[in-house]
Design brief:
Radius of gyration: 17 Å
Number of strands: 6
Low-confidence stretches: none
Structural class: alpha/beta
Distance between the termini: 20 Å
Helix content: 40-55%
């Protein structure tokens, strides 16, 4: 079995990008939740709706968080209205970000949150972890292959709003845990989901078959 993956060299933490973007967003020491998806009328928008709702509930309970959302699509107006009602000025929509620029946004944030409803894998989970972000997502479909529960992030039962909110809050409130999981996430992606390594494994296997 050859694991799917990414090129980790394209997704790394950069301190300069972190400082620059957080300055633009006027964020000081507040933890920043990041989410990214196309704003399609399907599980992508449904997933972002879950993120907005959970973060809105945490803000109402007193959490000093910011939510940054990357993406674009036909559901943009709907999502912006929902986010304004739930989070006011604590949400920032950054639009569609070119994939080769995503590392800057991952670097600027503190945790990646997206349910991954019926995701076959979810490359954004690998990208975020490669940049050192712990993940909060649903324990469903292919997500557990991308995120190691309790090690590189927190997976919760699908559609369990309370547990989803609690998992986000746990990482928001524990910077030491965020850093620990973030470091584990970087290592995990490089060990298990590096396409350069995985393609070489496949080439070696095919070469062995050809030479028999």
């Amino acid at each position: 079995y050859i694991s799917p993956g990414i090129h980790p060299a394209a997704f790394y933490f950069e301190e300069d990008a972190r400082q620059a973007l957080r300055g633009q967003w006027n964020v000081a020491d507040e933890p920043v939740v990041f989410s990214a998806a196309m704003f399609r009328a399907d599980v992508k928008t449904e997933g972002l709706t879950w993120v907005i709702g959970a973060c809105g509930e945490l803000v109402r309970r007193g959490s000093a968080l910011r939510l940054v959302i990357a993406g674009d699509g036909i559901q943009q107006d709907k999502l912006r209205r929902l986010a304004a009602g739930q989070l006011g000025d604590r949400v920032i929509f950054v639009g569609k970000v070119p994939r080769d620029n995503m590392y800057r946004y991952y670097s600027a944030c503190d945790l990646f949150v997206f349910p991954g409803i019926r995701e076959s894998l979810g490359l954004v989970f690998l990208e975020a972890q490669s940049c050192g972000l712990p993940v909060v997502a649903f324990d469903n479909a292919g997500v557990p292959e991308a995120v190691k529960d309790g090690i590189t992030g927190l997976l919760v039962p699908a559609f369990d709003a309370k547990t989803f909110e609690e998992a986000i809050a746990r990482l928001l409130n524990d910077s030491q845990l965020r850093r620990k999981m973030g470091r584990a996430a970087q290592s995990y992606v490089r060990q298990q989901h590096d396409l350069n390594h995985n393609y070489q494994k496949m080439e070696d296997m095919l070469q062995e078959i050809v030479n028999k």
